[in-house]
Structure formats: structure tokens, C-alpha cells
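Give me the 3D structure for phosphoenolpyruvate--glycerone phosphotransferase.
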Amino acid sequence: MDIENIKKKISDISDTIIENKEYLTELDRQIGDADHGYNMAKGFTAVKIILEDDFKSVKELINKIAMTLISNVGGASGPLYGSFFMKFAQGLDDSDNINKKQFADAFSKGLDGVIMRGKAQINDKTMVDVLEPVSKALYEDKPYSEIVKLAKEKMEDTKEMKARKGRASYLGDRSIGHIDPGACSSYLMIETLMGDLDG
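Predicted structure for phosphoenolpyruvate--glycerone phosphotransferase (199 residues):
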């Protein structure tokens, strides 16, 4: 995928997050600070603006996205998503395109960045519950349609988990019965990015 197609995908992801601002905020209202949707929409509105710039490489583009999210997304989401994109960029070379193996390698580094920043693991009821299985599926070269389906299942699985990280962890058992907002925003990005790639 070349840099112009990647820009188009990032623009689509931005639109998806902005369109789901109220839904993500409602999810966060149930177990968090009720600001996840607002913060994410603010960050990706800023991302859409930087997409108008010229970039020599995919790495440069993704690094700029990382810094934009860190600067514009409040709460825990800014550092977490910023870390994902920053580490993702570190997994790339200086070319103006990216193949499937490079994507899998970079995604894995992005996941490592989230884990390092948030100290979360599988079953902690966070975005890691979506990102880690997706990373594994990318390495296994699963069809993108299967990966999207897996991401949705893993997002929905967070509903029955007890939160062990973040603001939701203060609720204890009362966090059970609600989808994690970060898992949801991660799924929305993955579905928007990969939903039509097999075609």
C-alpha cells in the first residue's frame, strides 16, 4: 500500500472515530470519565488536517500522526494511541509504501508500545484485548476479513471482563457488563482499515 492510499485509510479512520464520538463517549460514561469519544474525535480531527501535508515516507507520516494524537487527545488515550503509532513508525523503513509483512511487524511494535505505556495485558479489559489477538493474526497471515471479525469478537468479550487497569478498575465488579471504550475505538479503526483489503 502506497502513501496516498494510506492517507486515504487514515482519513477514513478519522471519519469513523468522529462519527462514533457520541457512542464512544457513552461507553466511557458507564465505566470511565465520559470523555473518550470527545478526546478521540478531537485528536482525529487534527489528524485529518495534517494529512494535507506532503510526506516522503510512510514512517514520517505515521510519526506525525503519533505526535498529533499525543498533542490533541486528552486523558489516557492520547499517550496510548500516540505510543502505538510512534512504535509502529519505528518498525518501518524510509520507503513510501508498506507490504503485509512490514505491516505485521510494525503493528506488533505498536502493540508493544501500548503495553509498555499502559502496563496492561490480555483480560485486563483494555484495548490490548483487541490489539494483541489482531497482531497475532497478522503474523499468521489470516485474511483481513477474518481479522476484522476476530477484533469484533474480542471487543465484545471485554463486556464480561472485570477491569483491572485504568479508571474502570476502580469500579471493581461494577465494570462487568460494559464494553471497554478503548477496545471499541481500536476495533473501529481496525474494521475501517482492513474491512475491504481482501478485495
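Residues 100-118 form the longest helix (19 residues). Let me know if you want a second pass.
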